[in-house]
Specification:
The chain is mainly β. It folds into 2 domains: 346 residues, Methylamine Dehydrogenase, Chain H; 73 residues, Immunoglobulin-like (Sandwich). The chain contains no helices and 39 strands. The strands form 10 sheets. It has a 5-stranded antiparallel sheet, with no helix packed on it. A hairpin with a 7-residue loop joins strand 23 and strand 24. 45% of the residues are buried. The N terminus is likely disordered.
Length: 441
């Protein structure tokens, strides 16, 4: 099914100084949630989308594929779409000088669907769909090569699934059931080493958001045939996983925490994330030059956010915000064709960047102290800052339990509503964050 028309333009202190020049693309569609993209040439690629988050009925929902030939700068054209559909992910491999795209999604979370090249067609961008089962859905897809692909998602029972195809998506067989939470993203480091993130956030009707209460990271060392759990969380799930090398990788957790491994996934520790307030992490990617980028958004839809890392994912700081834009307030996925061409899939338009990263002038370091510590009732924050500083109290699970700001050089914070335990008091000034430990008795 095709239609061809152009869319109307339709815990220590650290300082980060990397900002990228992102801007709104020319692809615009008010109800579309652009989920992911893949490119086979520098400016030519495909975006997958769904609408209305995705429902609530077949008449109100459409998902499909949009093609751009100008790097999304001037618009795009629909090349495949169907009602009741929500496409979540897409990947591409080159073979014989031609692109082999494959996309995955679902019909209202109730039937898993793969969209791949129409068999027998000489046109590599002519597609049809394959239904692979009911009471199940896909959220991720990755190709090992032009023949072997893996699609992953969940079942109506709440378990994760990974299916495999060895004929470029024509037929599929289930190879793994991961109990407890659906798969949110897949990542292959090479032909043998792969990772799966489970328990990612879910988009609900009317821009609602569901964050599961658990999740895990799985690893395959035999090309995706077998999967073992290497890390789990009882706080919330994981939205994505990405490796810079076979040893160094990161995973984004729904609640704004980024975990990092330096031993191929055997052990995971929290990376430093310097960004105030609560946000949902949605994806992470490393460019060929080693720079890392992660996407996020505020749950109320007020701001889409991009973070960056220049040290292999050990620390992450502010890179870009869509707060000043009239759109793209929820960023779902990041993709780089190369170091100079990047795309952020969002609702309701993608963002594009030419990869430029500029240095920002360093600010004077903030300093503050807190006393008494430990404290049973109140704590006093003393600072040399003349201007008000936003302050946050962070619990041991990384959650913000109290927000306030300084007023003058001494500010009293009432701890009467805070449970006993170990916390961190965090002060924020521009892109610099300083945090100190606090024991609440």
């Amino acid at each position: 099914m095709t239609r061809s028309f152009l869319l109307a333009t339709v815990l220590s202190s650290a300082t980060f100084s990397l900002q990228a020049q992102w801007e709104a693309s020319g692809i615009l569609a008010i109800t579309n949630h652009f989920s992911a993209c893949a490119f086979h040439q520098v400016d030519t690629g495909l975006f997958v989308y769904g609408a209305n988050n995705p429902g609530p009925s077949p008449s109100a929902t459409e998902g499909g594929i949009i093609r751009t030939t100008d790097g999304a700068s001037g618009g795009g054209g629909y090349i495949w779409y169907q009602p009741s559909m929500f496409l979540e992910d897409i990947d591409v491999k080159m073979a014989g000088g031609k692109p082999w795209y494959i996309a995955a999604g679902h019909e209202l979370y109730n039937r898993s669907v793969v969209v791949r090249k129409t068999l027998g067609s000489p046109n590599p961008l002519q597609f049809d769909s394959v239904r692979t089962g009911t009471s199940r859905y896909y959220r991720a897809i990755r190709m090992r090569n032009d023949l072997v692909a893996f699609a992953a998602g969940g079942t109506s029972m709440g378990d994760g699934i990974i299916d495999m195809s060895v004929d470029t998506g024509s037929t599929w067989a289930n190879i793994a059931v991961l109990p407890g939470q659906p798969v949110s993203r897949l990542h292959f480091v090479n032909d043998q080493l792969g990772f799966a993130a489970t328990g990612g956030y879910s988009r609900l009707f009317n821009n609602g958001l569901l964050q599961p209460d658990s999740g895990a990271i799985y690893r395959s060392t035999n090309g995706g045939m077998d999967w073992e759990q290497v890390h789990s969380s009882t706080v919330t799930g994981f939205s994505d996983v990405e490796f810079q090398t076979a040893e160094i990788g990161v995973a984004t957790r729904n609640d704004g925490v980024i975990l990092r491994t330096t031993d191929g996934g055997d052990t995971w520790t929290e990376a430093t994330v310097i960004l105030s307030g609560e946000f949902v992490l949605t994806s992470v990617v490393f460019r060929n030059d080693g720079l890392g980028f992660a996407s996020a958004y505020r749950a109320d839809g007020s701001e889409g956010i991009i973070l960056s890392s220049s040290d292999g994912g050990a620390s992450w700081g502010f890179n870009y915000s869509t707060a000043g834009m009239n759109g793209a307030r929820r960023i779902y996925d990041l993709y780089f064709f190369d170091n100079e061409h990047g795309y952020a899939s969002a609702h309701w338009k993608p963002l594009v960047t030419q990869g430029l990263v500029t240095a920002m002038p360093q600010q004077d370091a903030i300093r503050f102290e807190i006393f008494p510590n430990p404290s049973s009732d109140v704590v006093i924050v003393r600072t040399m800052e003349e201007a008000s500083l936003p302050m946050e109290l962070i619990d041991a699970m990384g959650r913000v339990v109290l927000r306030t700001s300084t007023s003058g050089r001494e500010t009293t914070i009432d701890l009467s509503g805070v449970k006993p335990g170990l916390y961190r008091v965090r002060a924020i000034k521009g892109m610099e964050v300083l945090s100190l430990p606090l024991m609440r008795l």
